[in-house]
Design goal:
CATH architecture of the largest domain in chain A: 2-Layer Sandwich
Number of domains of chain A: 2
Shape of chain A: globular
Number of strands of chain A: 12
CATH topology of the largest domain in chain A: Ribosomal Protein S5, domain 2
Largest interface: A-B, 42 and 42 residues
Distance between the termini of chain A: 11 Å
Mean pLDDT of chain A: 96
Oligomer: homodimer
Chain lengths: 307, 307
């Protein structure tokens, strides 16, 4: 029996000024999943975690993504998948994308890489749709392509893999619920042309900074006057997390996805670890449970752990 | 007597999605100016063209930029400048910036390069202010730095020189008047968050495409749904110029600055020349006088022609 085990990483979307287009992949946490080819055109799901996710393939994110693949192939085969989720659903670091992307990348390996990355992104987005009821590639793109990605357009899907220098992320996940729908609802529908210009100037500078490895420019362009001011209210101690991280040497950062996770970028592992300490200190003084992750940017995306 | 002659190039600002931040320099047309140090703290101006520009330094763009330099130096010296403008004022290809930048670059050479590029940009922007009554670096930046530039912020001034692959521009200047103030007035003050996201995704992709030399991505990201739809009405036959240029192989293009010039980018000189022909054809059927320029992107900006 052919089988493969992959690690699908957490991802950060909505990178500061790059709302709805810029994302990157983390080295950890990762979901682990093992996929086997079976001789029946169906998807069988087993979860090795405590998140009580649905096991019917039509309701499971990985399941829907795999069904989308089965729809595209002629052979009378299917998949059996065991998922050990370690990225908590609702954390704002791409838990559902990891499920979907991990599943389709593993399936594609078992099918001798017959699909392109862009095709895999389309399959994964069908899985993502179960979670978000929307067509988004913000987390799918970095999970699948690795590194930093820019989604230029969703319809048609156009994903750009960006060049980037060594970078480390510190991510705190406060264990509170921020519903994506609520986080969407508080966004302005109209913004001033002036602030839009400021935003796209920063996005352009951010992409240039990543490509040149210009950390100072990167720091200057990590600013967002549109989304962060309205969404930060949903995240306890956001301002403190940010100001203390900057004091500790962070280049910048903000809300991961639609929250509640908050991320900061650093030039060195040492700085990222100093930021971890200061984030832990801030949240240790609260009643809120939390996790903190320190991770280099994951240039690869999904990794094969065993074949 | 120390003297220097420089060529200050025309520039294209508001590069499609990069409204108010992205610009590039052309090889031609260029203003030519000769600067001499004199033993009196003043600026003397002579124009070798027919544009009837004011000769009082306080009212002349190059004059104001040079006075800003004199304000910063201790020595009892001044400048005598002869300007042969070849970039028609009001053409939308950075005529006033060329005057200001050419003057300050020439002055800095005579002063043994004592000022940084960013300082020179500040001096030139004081000159620009005479023309636009606003603080802008859209044309100053590419004229001074050369190549493609991104103005991340005007206050404080932050200019990013972008990497870019070989590119050719075709620019048509219809000899009609489009007032910058009028072109500003018809802009929306508010835009939808949705179209802003589309714009900044394109700006990010455009910068990535320039840095990677990815011409296909460059073509896909050269789209603007915010400014072009309202401003193109000021430019006769804009839609025809654009659609014929794209048919001739242009990567994309749009309004240069606030018009009336229209530019198109191409991967090869041959394509740029084919576009020139089709632009000439379209405007030959009208009563409007016009000039067309074909030019490689000017990587250097202002050039010294004689010392």
């Amino acid at each position: 029996m052919k089988e493969i085990t992959v690690l699908a990483p957490a991802t950060v979307a909505n990178v500061v000024c790059g709302f709805d287009c810029l994302g990157f992949a983390l080295e950890n946490p990762c979901d682990q999943m093992t996929l086997r080819l079976i001789a029946e055109k169906t998807v069988k799901i087993k979860h090795l975690d405590d998140f009580n996710l649905p096991l019917e393939p039509e309701k499971n994110i990985a399941g829907v993504a795999l069904l989308a693949i089965l729809d595209e192939i002629e052979e009378n085969i299917g998949f059996e998948i065991e998922i050990a989720k370690r990225i908590k659903p609702g954390s704002g670091i791409g838990s559902s994308s990891a499920s979907a992307v991990g599943a389709v990348v593993a399936a594609n390996k078992l099918l001798d890489e017959r699909f392109s990355l862009l095709q895999l992104a389309e399959f994964a987005m069908k899985g993502e749709f179960v979670a978000s009821q929307g067509r988004h590639a913000d987390n799918v793109a970095p999970c699948l392509f690795g590194g930093f990605t820019l989604v230029r357009s969703v319809e048609p899907l156009d994903i750009v893999k960006l060049d980037f220098p060594p970078l480390f992320a510190t991510v705190i996940h406060p264990q509170i619920e921020v519903k994506t729908s609520q986080a969407r609802k508080i966004l302005p529908t109209e913004i001033s042309l002036k602030s839009a210009i400021q935003a796209w100037s920063n996005v352009g500078a951010l992409v240039a900074a990543l490509s040149k490895g210009d950390y100072e420019l990167l720091a200057r362009s990590l600013e967002d006057f549109i989304v962060e001011p309205v969404r930060k209210k949903l995240i306890p101690h956001f301002d403190e997390l940010k100001s203390e991280s900057l004091k500790s040497g962070a280049l910048g950062g903000g809300i991961s996805g639609s929250g509640p996770s908050v991320f900061m970028l650093s030039e060195t592992l040492e700085t990222a670890q100093t930021i971890e300490k200061s984030m832990r200190e801030i949240y240790s003084n609260t009643e809120i449970d939390f996790n903190v992750y320190v991770s280099e940017i994951n240039a690869e995306g999904v990794k094969v752990s065993k074949t």
